[in-house]
Amino acid sequence: MTVNATSSTAVSASTPNSPGDTLLANAIRVLSFDAVEAAKSGHPGMPMGMADIGVALWTRHYRHNPANPAWANRDRFIVSNGHGSMLHYSLLHFAGYDLPMEEIRNFRKLHSRTAGHPEVGITPGVETTTGPLGQGIANGVGMALAEWLLASEFNKPGLPIVDHRTYVFLGDGCLMEGVSHEACSLAGTLRLNKLVALYDDNNISIDGKVEGWFTEDIPKRFESYGWNVIGGVDGHSVEAVSAAIEAAKTSDRPTLICCKTVIGKGSPNRAGTAKAHGEALGAEEIKLTREALGWAHAPFEIPAEVYAGFDARARGGAQEADWNALFAQYEAQFPTEAAEFKRRIAKGLPANWSETVAAYLAACEDKKETIATRKASQNAIEAYAKVLPEFLGGSADLTGSNLTNWSTSKPVRVGQPGQHINYGVREFGMSAVMNGIALHGGYLPFGATFLTFSDYSRNAIRMAALMKQRSIFVFTHDSIGLGEDGPTHQSIEHVSSLRLIPGLDVWRPADTTESAVAWAVAVEQVNRPSTLLFSRQNLPFLSKPAGAIEGIRRGGYVLSDAPGAKAVILATGSEVGLALDAQKLLAEQGVPTRVVSIPSTSVFDRQPADYKAAVLGSGLPRVAVEAGVTDFWWKYRVEAVVGIDTFGESAPAGVLFKHFGFTPENVANTVKAAIA
Amino acid sequence: MTVNATSSTAVSASTPNSPGDTLLANAIRVLSFDAVEAAKSGHPGMPMGMADIGVALWTRHYRHNPANPAWANRDRFIVSNGHGSMLHYSLLHFAGYDLPMEEIRNFRKLHSRTAGHPEVGITPGVETTTGPLGQGIANGVGMALAEWLLASEFNKPGLPIVDHRTYVFLGDGCLMEGVSHEACSLAGTLRLNKLVALYDDNNISIDGKVEGWFTEDIPKRFESYGWNVIGGVDGHSVEAVSAAIEAAKTSDRPTLICCKTVIGKGSPNRAGTAKAHGEALGAEEIKLTREALGWAHAPFEIPAEVYAGFDARARGGAQEADWNALFAQYEAQFPTEAAEFKRRIAKGLPANWSETVAAYLAACEDKKETIATRKASQNAIEAYAKVLPEFLGGSADLTGSNLTNWSTSKPVRVGQPGQHINYGVREFGMSAVMNGIALHGGYLPFGATFLTFSDYSRNAIRMAALMKQRSIFVFTHDSIGLGEDGPTHQSIEHVSSLRLIPGLDVWRPADTTESAVAWAVAVEQVNRPSTLLFSRQNLPFLSKPAGAIEGIRRGGYVLSDAPGAKAVILATGSEVGLALDAQKLLAEQGVPTRVVSIPSTSVFDRQPADYKAAVLGSGLPRVAVEAGVTDFWWKYRVEAVVGIDTFGESAPAGVLFKHFGFTPENVANTVKAAIA
């Protein structure tokens, strides 16, 4: 084994695998290609190439209990190159998880627990959903970060109740993706030394040999990030890989172990080729591969020695039992902290949550402040942080603009825990790291950028929704109201386009109270991500009718009604005040109207039909007003939409609102045309 | 000056600026902070910090002609840290571009030519729109790539009609962004040695000193990409920077010049602080800064020596005249190539374009193939590539799945030009590089990935639309029809969410002919990007009525009508065949219906009202069918949408379509309910 000269750790020389390890690794290979063959779809190359690495980690290092995949102090394991799902499923099956052979046979079939790519919540032992490359390692950075912070917060001398590692498998694809750059750079800066990444360096990606498009010196790149790099490890030597992992444990930096492997290893004709990557080997090549591996067993028949070799139930049960004993000691000495730890891991709300929210909302209604909703957001954070120590805020280098820090939050720095993360200009990395934090448990992550740059992190927002994780994405400067920075920075399509992501709540509050309710509901939705959209500019406080707070919680409500209303104006965020101005103007012209504020269409859409009908009115023409694209609003059977279907312009906000027709006069005229 | 040990080039030692250079640099500083002050908004820090670098590049190296910003062989210059727009505007103004002082005074005002961030098409001399960090350098990679390929294609011995450099200014923000990683890694692999990036290494980003979140060893990182790195340059020494640029010109690699600078240099109280970055200095600090710089002139009054020092009109005019003479020689010796070069630069279509398209569409109608539309796309590429040598295809490591290569395309490799780029697993980088290629001119870039991963590149797609560039984004595997790879890979919201981007055409064709029309229209839209969405699975060839091809060109048309139709079924892509099956079933049940295929809603929406009304029918209930989110379709006043508002599942495509209700029976029942 060659060892990289800089900041790396020496490990033992490569040794050939023992017969026992060979058997275990080959079992992964065979089960993987048999399952892919049965599904007529899938990726045999990675499981066959990383089989020995899997054996090294899972039989010698990985601390977990198959009987309890939710054990709080388990090591985390991520297959960032998620197309290699059969590697993970094989390991889970062999190690004793509740993933019987029937599920392996049903690989990639509807409602099986063995989806095409690993999905958290579907398969026991899967820690995050992977497949979109690069995000798994970023999730791993989030988990390692959460582990460090949680340990700093809860551990007591001699009572390390939080003390585990995060292991990540990744491939060339993950390393090409920009999100791996963002997350790994941050991990290096923060020296997350309990993160161990194992790189499947097989020189192959889907298009063929990577030398044509990917020639980075990976060890050098990761050294530039401040990682501990263990280079040149023989990825087919279980002992060499194991020694590298052992060495990684002593580093004060995150470690990248570069494992030289052969994709599809074992397949006489496909090993080392792109063809091994993503298609079934086929009957003939499977026959040849079985011969080459000396594997005499039929498909889905696994010798008992394999199960014996992988079985982690006894070891894992003992590890968890030890931890339970430790935790019992902790609980005896620190009952308050122990209870709090349990609450945090269970995502429970604090006992005084409802009172805190109610009191704060009452205060908002009382103060009637006209401020930017981004400032209203910060005030809500300030209020709720008093009872939510799990708040872990952050910003992609726009802290002073996004206002996601608060008076008692300390910035997270290397060796110095805190409650607010300066993620740097890394929107995608931030969002994927947040998902990792949420998946780890113990914290409620939120992170921010300008709404337009939600584009950069869009797939991580989608992944939060798919995984049902409580990541809260704060997006400020939510319209042309951003002003002079111009069209590159002004959101036009973003509010609506976020609304199209299934399972995601999108809030665009209109004033201080709506902002505070949005935050409260986002916190309470423990199995759903939320995006909170806030204005750069001041928005007037809205006088509300009785019951309005419940209406905000329902996503939409009648803000201002008029006897004999002839039309309904629907609006969100900064346009609600405009709608009220138009209502007033129309009233002066003898046209009574109703104004409905819809801070969250997704929440509103989940309400009972009769509630929605009562709010929207029936038989009355409707007009929607929002400083964004118009297409979305037709679902509410409107007659017209006052919106923007072009890009913005660079000018002061007030000039722009006028330029784009966001005036009481234009809204009033549109309403009158809709009535006519 | 320290010089990095590896793969770097020695340059002369740092020397203090001459009085003349000091004057020029200070003129940039003063004009920038005065313009920001007048706008009460903007970013003085970067222009003040990079002023000397601007002087070095613009007075000693940058080859351009202010009188003709469209000169084909000009050097390209990009401010990737686009918030420093006033640096660029100052330079353009001083050098003699058509950007009078009146425009500088109107910085950030509506309809000025001095937008908050540089915008191509608005300001003469601006080569790309920047502001969303990291994309400018990626655009620069695309320009350098286009320059190399175009030179390889057109230059003749002694007649280098394409021979220029691409210079990029960038900052810490750009380097934190993942897209810089993706694009710069590719640039290193391809050894784009005419790319020179100048890094504003000032240790500051918006949140403060970057040491808390950004501690990369940048020279080492870029060496890992295979770049020539010139480290430790004094960014306030014009001569040192100039020498580094001179050294860069001799490298066989792209060059990164790391310039140590002080943000806001010149401002006594803000230099070196984050406060200098993004807010006006204020009257008091401006006074102190003027004193510190020894600048006696009033705001917007610039001494003649400054204009004299920067004036590039004579030099640039002579450079272009030399090139014109060279081109005349070229034209005399190679008239065909010269004409073709001019056509390519002007984005003209070849003379036989219409005939080629018509003949190919006739062949599609004749062959009646039932194939996947991704294959139909490849066939169209094959047909059109015969007359479009400007086709420059590519894929983010899914070439065999996206099918964006063709029989005569050669892969682009280091030192080996071609027509198809293996971008690696770098969707965002690919898309931003494509935009750079389009901006450079000479090529029509297209690049591909799975539709779901359009998320990764979303902001580059937006930027193509904002910049009105003909980048063609090919997205295959466009629905649950992708099958077993599961919900991480299945598009649900993407078709509709792309439709929300202003100025972007989205095509989702239903068969071979529609696919070929989509390609043709995308090629013809020279000032607009298009996204072409194709199926993984086979789609049946559709028998069409007379005039259908014109109807496809219009984005939507009556595919199949029935006398006395009682409802209209709208469908796109893979659901058009389903709509026809439902129509048949309904006919058997005595319910005549019309089926409308809408391959492009954006194109359809641009048609005259009477055409749209005729296609959609009036007074008839409408039902839309699309394997994606339903919200979008209500704008067509439908009664119901057969769609999917949850994530997909991992299973074979046929199973999934049934599972999610995409059956003739369900569509027919929905239509009957809509009629009732």
From TrEMBL, chains A, B:
Designated name of the protein: Transketolase
GO biological process annotation, one example: pentose-phosphate shunt, non-oxidative branch
Cofactor binding note of this UniProt entry: Binds 1 thiamine pyrophosphate per subunit. During the reaction, the substrate forms a covalent intermediate with the cofactor.
Signal peptide limits: none
Residues given in the record as substrate binding sites: 43, 277, 374, 401, 477, 485, 489, 536
Protein family according to the UniProt entry: Belongs to the transketolase family.
SUPFAM superfamilies found in the cross-reference section: Thiamin diphosphate-binding fold (THDP-binding) (SSF52518), TK C-terminal domain-like (SSF52922)
Active site, renumbered: 427
Sites marked Important for catalytic activity: 43, 277
GO MF annotation list: metal ion binding; transketolase activity
Keyword Magnesium: yes
